[in-house]
Specification:
alpha+beta, 6-stranded mixed β-sheet, 4-stranded antiparallel β-sheet, 16 strands
């Protein structure tokens, strides 16, 4: 029998709690739900008022994976939704605004992915993101080198910069912005990526072309597009282990000499929140928002 749990007055059927999702570590669905419940205060600040895309992996990372954007069949009527404009017409997506909605969504076994804009202001970005993706044999160590250069450049343009791991191989840089059309943010980010490649040609590439990427860090600026999403801070990832897209300090970025130093699992996050709080909290604070520079190098 599927157990019924009450969360904030909502009745939830949480299924298959003993099912092993991450076979390498024996991490179960019940442990996944516990992780999301225990990090909810921090995670929800980055999910609220943003339409969610789900990367679902109901049989674990080794099973089928699929993106889901539309409201899933059987979604409770109390789960918030929002119309999201698309080129082929509006779609309806989930907005995870509270603990009950978070636990319902987590029960689907998912990564959480969100855009750089909020549901009530589509395509008006309130943050900039640069996804630093290493091409083997490069690792997150090389991403940190590129990230430190990009941090200095972004700060020179008057932006505050924060970092998190992707939960996979790379590093994400994020800056809080005054709401700005997504296409303008994308243009600025592209200019910055091209400048980074010009300054660090042995380390950075700004184009996705596979043949250019071995041993270098691809600075992916495209996730600033209104149609794109990025792994939400604190989401679990569908990797071999229950890795997390975890906020990191700049001291950790500066000191990184081994990829293992910036690889965080579900069990690492509660102690980090206890020690640091939410390192990405400034992204959600309106007084931290800065205007987008006119162009990279302006």
């Amino acid at each position: 029998m599927t157990p019924i749990t009450e969360v904030e007055g909502r009745r939830l059927a949480l299924s298959n709690l003993d099912k092993v999702l991450y076979t390498a570590s024996g991490f179960t669905k019940g442990e996944m739900l516990h992780y999301y419940a225990s990090t909810a205060d921090a995670l929800l600040t980055h999910l609220r008022n943003r339409p969610v895309s789900f990367l679902r992996f109901p049989d674990g990372p080794d099973g089928q994976q699929f993106f889901a954007k539309n409201v899933p069949p059987g979604a409770p009527d109390w789960v918030h939704t929002a119309d999201v404009p698309r080129s082929a017409g509006d779609v309806r997506q989930i907005v995870v605004d509270d603990l009950a909605s978070l636990m319902w969504a987590a029960n689907l076994v998912t990564e959480f992915h969100t855009p750089q804009w909020q549901a009530d202001a589509p395509a008006m970005a309130d943050r900039l993101v640069l996804d630093l993706d290493p091409g083997p044999p490069a690792t997150v160590v090389e991403c940190c080198r590129a990230g430190l250069w990009l941090r200095e450049r972004l700060e020179a343009d008057g932006l505050d910069v924060y970092a998190k791991t992707s939960g996979s191989k790379g590093l994400h840089l994020l800056c809080p912005l005054e709401p700005t059309p997504s296409e303008q943010v994308t243009s600025y980010a592209k200019g910055l990526a091209k400048e980074a490649e010009a300054e660090l040609p042995e380390l950075v590439v700004h184009r996705m072309t596979r043949s250019l990427r071995p041993g270098k860090v691809f600075v992916d600026f495209s996730q600033n597009s209104a149609s794109k999403t990025t792994a939400t801070p604190y989401t679990l990832r569908a990797r071999a282990e229950p890795t997390v897209s975890a906020p990191v300090t700049w001291a950790e970025v500066e000191a990184c000499g081994d990829p293992a130093e910036l690889a965080f699992l579900a069990g690492d996050i509660a102690p980090r929140l206890e020690e640091y709080g939410d390192l990405l909290a400034p992204l959600t604070e309106p007084d931290r928002a800065r205007p987008l520079p006119r162009k990279a190098g302006a």
